[in-house]
């Protein structure tokens, strides 16, 4: 294959990226690579609650619309990210819960309205939604969030049901990080999916974020973990792949990084239910890693100048 778009067509899985909307609007070179290489897109931030409803009842869809419109013009499918999360909630919501002006019944209807409004707005335009994001802790207990605390564990089933009602065609995913290898998280998430299925809740997929660091071993059991979820009848996606390194960058680290990317693609290709591999940003010019991991960076397929890194070539070489 000549590029990732050709690779996607030949291999039958969509290759996607998270998109920075300001860069999409303002940087012609970014836009060019995005639309040449990728057949799936996720808004890095633009569909999160704080982005779409910064003030109560005041919706700001312009950025999300820009992503969806660009995708339609460029033959890209869209992953909606994300409906229920504990981060990047609007201040009016967290403050209202904290000071008691938003009670539990009201919070439940706020969540229902949020899901219904956002999913309905993009009905027919979103292939898959990350309905719930990061709902299990590292130790395998349910994550302590305002949702669990105020609504009880039933909020997860409710969220899937509300999303399904708003767009019956969209594939509905549970999404998490460290699900590639963390046993307690894996077991709890599998049990949660089984429980939802037993109760007839519409859940269709499991997303593995795939935020890897090359200073750690590659999660060698990942394909088996994917298979365990696939065996429940779920579609599998790698939703946020990157492979960060401790700076400075060296040729050797870039080669190691290349193997992490190619192994992730190989793992996805080895599981029939894995239909999408999305990277969390394609260029080091716009990557969340330096801002979130002290002293780390260079996590993407393209460098700051949009030159292809060894990891990019390694993906094209996967058979
Ligand atoms: C990150 C974005 O990349 C940053 O720009 C933002 O400041 C914080 O969130 N898991 C997720 C993503 O599901 O939404 C996160 O994205 C990265 C970790």
Automatic annotation (TrEMBL):
PROSITE patterns: GH10_2. It comes from the Bacteria. InterPro entries: GH, GH10, GH10_dom. Pfam families: Glyco_hydro_10. Residues 1-318 form the GH10 domain. It catalyses: Endohydrolysis of (1->4)-beta-D-xylosidic linkages in xylans. Belongs to the glycosyl hydrolase 10 (cellulase F) family. This is Beta-xylanase. The lineage of its organism: Bacteria, Bacillati, Actinomycetota, Actinomycetes, Streptosporangiales.
């Amino acid at each position: 294959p000549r590029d990732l778009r050709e690779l996607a067509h030949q291999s039958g899985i969509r290759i996607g990226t998270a998109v920075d909307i300001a860069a999409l609007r303002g940087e012609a070179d970014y836009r060019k690579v995005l639309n040449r290489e990728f057949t799936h897109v996720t808004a890095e931030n633009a569909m999160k609650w704080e982005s779409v409803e910064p003030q109560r009842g005041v919706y700001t869809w312009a950025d999300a619309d820009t992503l969806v419109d660009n995708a339609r013009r460029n033959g890209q499918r869209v992953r909606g990210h994300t409906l229920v999360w504990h981060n990047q909630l609007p201040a009016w919501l967290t403050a209202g819960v904290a000071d008691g002006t938003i009670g539990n019944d009201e919070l439940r209807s706020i969540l229902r309205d949020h899901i219904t409004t956002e999913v309905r707005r993009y009905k027919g335009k979103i292939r898959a939604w990350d309905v719930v994001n990061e709902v299990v802790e590292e130790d395998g207990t349910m994550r302590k969030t305002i949702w669990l605390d105020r609504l009880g564990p039933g909020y997860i089933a409710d969220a899937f049901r509300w999303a399904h009602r708003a767009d019956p065609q969209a594939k509905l995913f549970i999404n998490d990080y460290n699900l590639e290898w963390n046993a307690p998280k894996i077991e709890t998430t599998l049990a949660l999916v089984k429980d939802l299925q037993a109760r007839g809740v519409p859940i269709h997929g499991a997303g593995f974020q795939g935020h890897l660091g090359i200073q750690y071993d590659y999660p060698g059991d990942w394909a088996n973990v994917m298979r365990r979820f696939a065996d429940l009848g779920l579609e599998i996606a790698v939703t946020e792949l990157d492979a960060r390194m401790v700076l400075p960058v060296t040729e050797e680290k870039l080669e190691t990084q290349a193997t992490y990317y190619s192994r992730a693609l190989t793992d996805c290709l080895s599981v029939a239910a894995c239909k999408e591999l999305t990277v969390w940003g394609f260029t080091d010019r716009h990557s969340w890693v330096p801002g979130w991991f002290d002293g780390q960076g260079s996590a993407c397929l393209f460098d700051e100048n949009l030159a292809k890194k060894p990891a990019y070539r390694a993906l094209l070489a996967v058979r």
